[in-house]
Write a structure and sequence with these properties.
The chain is built from eleven helices and 16 strands. With 341 residues, the chain is an alpha/beta fold. The protein has two domains: 2-116 and 309-332, ornithine cyclodeaminase, domain 1 (2-Layer Sandwich); 133-304, NAD(P)-binding Rossmann-like Domain (Rossmann fold). The strands form two sheets. Strands 1, 2, 3, 4, 5, 6, 7 and 16 form an eight-stranded mixed β-sheet that branches. The protein has an eight-stranded parallel β-sheet with strand order 10-9-8-11-12-15-13-14. Strand 6 (92-100) and strand 7 (106-111) form a beta hairpin. Helix 2 packs across helix 3, helix 2 crosses helix 11 and helix 3 (112-131) runs parallel beside helix 4 (146-158). The longest helix has 20 residues, at 112-131.
């Protein structure tokens, strides 16, 4: 039987704390060679108004917290439609297909919009735990959309947050975000008039915008700040200016992906400001002690998050496991059996 889990069911089955643990385990497995992660395949619409992405992955049993044997296979199939901003639909639409890797049974089909929202923020929480100063707690949010909501929750898992400032190019949207999340998450969210005002003095910064040009300048960054750069995932777009990247110790989820897709890195490299060796390492490598993390309290660190298939696989497995225990989702028989003789 295959368990189908709807968008509205996922948050209860994937608490942020559990997703952070699952993503950390997947990143350690990737760094240790216990995962297979092909580059994602992207099919653009002819007018480039949207795309279809395929993100396959394999995790061995030790990388997914409780699965035994050969582990899991999976793929996220997702459309990304920027034109959905300001509509009732999220820009990300799709599903994660979860298979067990012994006999290939399809275990679950899980809504990808909710998975993407939670696991992306969870990855930033893992990076924050690994790279940010222990006393970091002055949080700046650039962008107040779907990812800002989950990142505020994730940052509160990763560090003890004492102050939150938020900014959006749409001031009304920023005010609505502040009112809603102050009440929902039980912490005051201040609305800043400019991006610079938002980040000045902050020691934790999350950029979760749909910007194509920089919204964060290196000159604004305080010594010791940590940045989670989340919004830009194409070679031609970026949220960080060249100085912000050049000033930082720069970490990625995968080198291969960053060298192909991360505009935050590729554009400064094309300008001659940095080389490939500016990438210190992958976050999973920091977690297993293969590469060093923060070297001093005053260093600026950046985590460039593109999103990778092992995140989705680990998160979907946690959803499936919790749904099995709680009777969540809907079981359907999708076949796969050989016909009787």
């Amino acid at each position: 039987m295959t368990r189908i889990v709807r968008q509205d069911e996922v948050p209860a089955l994937l608490p942020m704390e559990e997703c952070v643990e699952a993503v950390a385990a997947a990143l350690r497995a990737l760094a240790a060679g216990d995962a297979v992660l092909p580059l994602r395949q992207i099919t653009w619409l002819p007018d480039h108004s949207g795309l279809l992405g395929l993100m396959p992955a394999h995790l061995r049993g030790g990388g997914i917290g409780g699965a035994a044997g050969a582990g899991l296979l999976g793929v996220k199939v997702i459309s990304v439609m920027p034109g959905n901003h300001d509509t009732e639909l999220d820009s990300h639409q799709g599903a994660v297909l979860l298979f067990e890797a012994v006999r290939g049974r399809l275990l679950a089909i899980v809504d990808a919009t909710s998975i993407t929202q939670i696991r992306t923020a969870a990855a930033s929480a893992v990076a924050t735990r690994a790279l940010a100063r222990e006393d970091a707690g002055d949080l700046a949010m650039l962008g107040t959309g779907v990812q800002a909501v989950s990142h505020l929750e994730a940052m509160r898992v990763a560090r003890r947050i004492r102050r939150v400032r938020a900014w959006s190019r749409d001031a009304d949207h920023a005010r609505a975000f502040a009112r809603r999340e102050s009440e929902r998450q039980g912490i005051e969210v201040e609305v800043a008039a400019t991006a610079r005002e938002t980040v000045e003095g902050a020691d934790l910064i999350c950029t979760t915008t749909s910007a194509r040009e920089p919204v964060l300048e290196g000159a604004w960054l305080a010594p010791g700040a940590h940045v989670n750069a989340v919004g830009a995932c194409l070679p031609t777009t970026r949220e960080l200016d060249t100085q912000a990247v050049a000033r930082s110790r720069f970490y990625v989820d995968t080198r291969e992906g960053a060298l192909r897709e991360a505009g935050d890195f590729l554009i400064p490299r094309s300008e001659g400001a940095i080389g490939d060796d500016h990438i210190v390492g992958e976050i999973g490598e920091v977690l297993i002690g293969k590469v060093p993390g923060r070297g001093s309290p005053d260093e600026i660190t950046v985590f460039e998050s593109l999103g990778i298939g092992v995140y989705d696989l680990a998160a979907a497995h946690r959803v499936w496991r919790n749904a099995e225990a709680a009777g969540g989702g809907t079981e359907v028989d999708l076949g796969g059996r050989r016909p009787a003789d």
